[in-house]
């Protein structure tokens, strides 16, 4: 049985035109270069997910209703991410690992938080 190598943390590397590339080694020895030249950051506090047989659709937005007592919320959708079910499963596994590590460091997250 082959041993898996631990993941190598992402490390910034030099890229052209002021962009920063991040290289991350995966357990299978593959290198992934991510060019961040056109990356944009957004704040989202709401996500909704739907699916069909062929794709998973995630809608990210900002809840603009600050009163918790209302029965209807106004959400400004910012991003829609469409992916295959295979990519969605990889994302779910990565998020599960990330949340477990977070809770190990900072304590358990409750649904009401």
TrEMBL record:
InterPro entries: DUF3467
Family matches, as Pfam families: DUF3467
Highest taxon, organism lineage: Bacteria
Name of this chain's protein: DUF3467 domain-containing protein
Species per Swiss-Prot/TrEMBL record: Candidatus Accumulibacter phosphatis
Highest classification ranks of the organism: Bacteria, Pseudomonadati, Pseudomonadota, Betaproteobacteria, Candidatus Accumulibacter
